[in-house]
């Protein structure tokens, strides 16, 4: 899809996040409007039924959402991003969040809409939202290059930032755009980009058909794969370097790519969002995600956030041993020697400091005052896993997923016991994740 390389949205959507950071993130409390009834032993959920009076409703912003009001891209230069273009009408007996965008064919007469989360905290787990896409405007002439979206994004820290993360769960262009005829819908996973001169490094899936109407979007981010579903059907599976490398915000926006095809007076388009669900560190099937939403609704819950209060799957906090499923032995620093370069191994669990690993807030795994490290920041199968002075690089970031994979996001590979060995002293390296028992761990 060469024409999509002209897309400028990543940097400019990131500007909204930068503004939010400058203003200070709004604290999202672990509160529930109505009974939560979260699943037992859950890893934390965020659920919102969007039962608000307006974008200025204190509960809306207090629950962690910002209706964008700052100027800038993406889309038509000179357009306004209007908080008032986010409303909460009733549709089908349920309150929905509605984004409205309109244009009279001029930049000054163009209004966009966006909602984004205040906290940059979303990473692995299941993202789900029920969205109503529209092929035609609510009023006025049809044919505009409108983009109807749902995505997660991080800031870009400089050109070709290797830690940049963005997942476009859906970008629906009913009338086309970027040189493509519509209708067309994209799922795009980004590695990085440079704004000037433009260079994009991403992969995408697409559906060249109408998706007018209500659809359930479910995206599973786990074990090095991003799996995109529409109404229970897998439409994309992206992996490798396109797997996200840091936490992101969640966003919806509605905007005009350009005004090249506008005709007549003012045309107004709407996009509606029925609900949002995030299951932290959990892989939910599309059916399970919908069932979880129905459970909340049946209990009368319109909002819940247990992200920071429920136990994290895989134990993404605290200090403990990390035990191999295949060997029932612990990840160990040989001889309790904290010298840089000491290659890690498995050994009978003994409760010593050489086997006590702390999941630090920066994503590192620490023992004896140093960090688990992929030697030389390598990404090839067989690269040694060792102990090294903590330095904050991607070589020292690890995530223990709900599936039991200990993943280094930089390489998108798993910590693996060499040769599927189970004996004391068997060494660790990284290897392509394959689900084998020598790659499965628990605390």
From TrEMBL:
Residues 34-284 form the GH16 domain. It holds the Pfam family Ricin_B_lectin. Residues 1-38 form the signal peptide. InterPro entries: Beta-glucanase-like (IPR000757), ConA-like_dom_sf (IPR013320), Ricin_B-like_lectins (IPR035992), Ricin_B_lectin (IPR000772), TAT_signal (IPR006311). Keywords: Signal. PROSITE patterns: GH16_2, RICIN_B_LECTIN, TAT. Gene3D superfamilies: 2.60.120.200, 2.80.10.50. PANTHER family: GALACTOSE-BINDING DOMAIN-LIKE SUPERFAMILY PROTEIN (PTHR40469:SF2), SECRETED GLYCOSYL HYDROLASE (PTHR40469). This is GH16 domain-containing protein. It comes from Dactylosporangium maewongense.
């Amino acid at each position: 899809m060469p024409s999509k390389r002209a897309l400028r949205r990543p940097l400019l959507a990131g500007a909204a996040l930068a503004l939010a950071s400058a203003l200070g993130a709004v604290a999202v409390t672990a509160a529930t409007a109505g009974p939560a009834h979260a699943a037992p032993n859950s890893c934390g959920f965020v659920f919102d039924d969007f039962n608000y009076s307006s974008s200025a409703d204190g509960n809306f912003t207090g629950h962690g959402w910002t209706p964008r009001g700052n100027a800038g891209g993406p889309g038509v230069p000179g357009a306004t991003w209007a908080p008032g273009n986010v409303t909460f009408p009733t549709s089908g007996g349920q309150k929905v969040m509605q984004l409205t965008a309109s244009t009279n064919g001029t930049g000054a007469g163009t209004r966009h809409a966006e909602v984004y989360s205040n906290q940059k905290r979303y990473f692995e787990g299941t993202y789900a939202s029920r969205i109503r896409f529209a092929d035609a405007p609510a009023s006025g002439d049809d044919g505009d290059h409108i983009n109807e979206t749902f995505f997660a994004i991080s800031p870009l820290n400089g050109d070709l930032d290797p830690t940049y993360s963005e997942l476009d769960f859906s970008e629906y262009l009913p009338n086309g755009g970027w040189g493509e005829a519509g209708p067309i819908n994209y799922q795009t996973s980004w590695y990085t980009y440079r704004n000037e001169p433009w260079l994009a490094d991403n992969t995408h899936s697409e559906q060249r058909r109408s998706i007018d109407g209500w659809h359930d979007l479910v995206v599973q981010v786990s074990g090095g794969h991003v799996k995109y579903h529409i109404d229970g059907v897998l439409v994309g599976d992206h992996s490798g370097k396109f797997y996200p490398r840091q936490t992101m915000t969640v966003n919806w926006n509605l905007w005009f790519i350009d005004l090249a095809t506008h005709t007549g007076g003012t045309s107004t388009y709407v996009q509606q969002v029925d609900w949002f669900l995030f299951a932290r560190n959990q892989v939910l099937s599309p059916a399970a995600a919908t069932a979880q939403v129905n459970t909340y609704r049946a209990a009368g819950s319109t909002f819940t956030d247990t992200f920071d209060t429920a136990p994290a799957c895989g134990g993404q906090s605290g200090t403990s041993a990390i035990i191999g499923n295949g060997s029932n032995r612990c990840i160990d620093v040989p001889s309790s020697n904290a010298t840089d370069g000491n290659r890690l191994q498995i050994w009978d669990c003994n409760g010593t400091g050489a086997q006590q690993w702390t999941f630090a807030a920066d994503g590192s795994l620490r023992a004896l005052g140093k960090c688990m490290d992929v030697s030389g920041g390598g990404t090839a199968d067989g690269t040694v896993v060792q102990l090294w002075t903590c330095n904050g690089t991607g070589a020292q970031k690890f995530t223990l997923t709900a599936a039991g994979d200990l993943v280094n996001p930089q390489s998108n590979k798993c910590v693996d016991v060499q040769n599927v060995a189970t004996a004391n002293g068997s060494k660790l390296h990284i290897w392509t994740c394959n689900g084998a028992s020598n790659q499965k761990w628990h605390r």
